[in-house]
UniProtKB/TrEMBL annotation:
It comes from Epilithonimonas mollis. Keywords: Aminotransferase, Pyridoxal phosphate, Transferase. This is GDP-perosamine synthase. Belongs to the DegT/DnrJ/EryC1 family. The keyword Zinc does not apply.
Length: 376
């Protein structure tokens, strides 16, 4: 059996162990320390726009703390892109609130501005003004931030960016993760860079950063004993994980470049296969890190995405259908939904292809063989 080609696997840069060793040497084996501080600074410098960053145990934890700070509570509603991973919506439920799901734009795949406005107007009519809007940059593709931002501003609803898949992507030359009042990043093992597990909250003010640290370290009041006047969480990032993150930040630009090269490889490979469309930027305002290159079968072939997935699996190559929209998930079946079948159709026709920055030439040859021998 040939070795497995993964969709997206960790890709160490070489500098990580030095920072981990430093933490051991100084015995800062704890969820705080120099690596945590320096990791935060390196992300801040990378994304710019005077944003502050709090390193946390996961992207999901970051979203939870964002929604808490936006005052989301039991009975509230929060608008969320339907076409995403469940972690974009779960924290809404942690708080006893209800997700209101919105369909995607056909070309951009992220939240449709038209459906967003329809949803907001209808919820306001029901006397339930949404507390926040969660927009996702799926597979690294920046969402339509001008349009979505303008709608959020018009109705005075805070925008939260789920930028878990989009570190290094830009919209109109501005980094994803700097548009919302809050944004989340993820450093899970399959993301463009990893801390083995971890995330960050991108924050606009010093007060919000202090509050985020406070909430993520068990909400300890300023007293010599342990005193609490709020419910806290244990969400801070480990200093060991942050050491990995520091090393990964040093190679982030290279990782973005590599994934974009893989996207070009697929584009060329599929260029004369009529049945397949490679998901691409619509114009130069959008710069995707191409975390995962995704394709859709456009109906000019009788084959399904599952047929193609099997052909890859036979060669020990991992592929995966696109995210199943949240409004179709059993756990969210009773939540309101605005839109048509854009995300549902993408789910039915699409496939994510191996896109790791550590893909070798030998791997590419194996991918080439499967695709060029497949009868679409
Ligand atoms: C990975 C991911 C998350 C969650 O991040 P974790 O660090 O795994 O908690 C949230 N949203 C999207 C779109 C993701 O891909």
């Amino acid at each position: 059996m040939k070795s497995k080609i993964w969709l997206s696997s960790p890709h160490m840069g070489g500098g990580e162990l030095k920072y981990v060793q430093e933490a051991f040497d100084q015995n800062w084996v704890a969820p705080l320390g120099k690596n945590v501080d320096e990791f935060e600074v390196s992300i801040q410098n990378y994304i710019g726009e005077d944003k502050l960053v709090a390193a946390l145990s996961s992207g999901t934890a970051a979203l939870h703390l964002a929604l808490i700070q936006l005052g989301v509570g039991p009975g509230d509603e929060v608008i969320c892109q339907s076409f995403t991973f469940s972690a974009s919506a779960n924290p809404i439920k942690y708080l006893g609130a209800t997700p209101v799901f919105v369909d995607s734009d056909k070309k951009n795949w992220n939240m449709s501005p038209a459906y967003l406005e329809e949803a907001i107007q209808d919820r306001i009519k029901n006397n339930k003004k949404p507390k926040a809007v969660i927009v996702v940059h799926l597979y690294g593709m920046p969402a339509m931030m001008d349009e979505l931002g303008a709608i959020c501003e018009k109705y005075e609803i805070p925008l939260v960016e789920d930028s878990a898949e989009a570190l290094g992507s830009t919209y109109k030359d501005r980094k994803c993760g700097t548009f919302g009042e809050f944004a989340i990043l993820s450093f899970n093992g399959n993301k463009i860079i990893t801390t083995s597990g971890g995330g960050a909250l991108v924050i606009s003010t010093k007060e919000q950063k202090d509050k985020t640290i406070f909430l993520s370290t068990q909400a300890r009041d300023n007293a010599p004993h342990y005193q609490h006047s709020e419910i806290g969480y244990n969400y801070r990032l480990s200093n060991i994980s942050a050491g990995i993150g520091r090393g990964q930040m040093e190679v982030l630009d290279n990782r973005v470049q590599k994934r974009r090269e893989i996207n070009v490889f697929y584009k060329e490979l599929f260029s004369n296969i009529e049945a397949v469309d490679v998901f691409s930027e619509t114009d130069s305002d959008f710069f995707s890190n191409h975390w995962l290159t995704s394709i859709t079968l456009n109906g000019s072939s009788k084959k399904t995405n599952h047929d193609l997935m099997s052909a890859f699996a036979e060669q020990n190559i991992e592929t995966r259908p696109l995210w199943k929209p949240m409004h179709l998930q059993p756990v969210f079946k009773d939540c309101p939904y605005y839109g048509e079948t854009v995300s549902e159709d993408l789910f039915g026709a699409g496939l994510c292809l191996p896109s790791g920055s550590n893909l070798t030439n030998d791997d590419k040859n194996r991918l080439y063989d499967v695709i060029s021998n497949y009868e679409f």
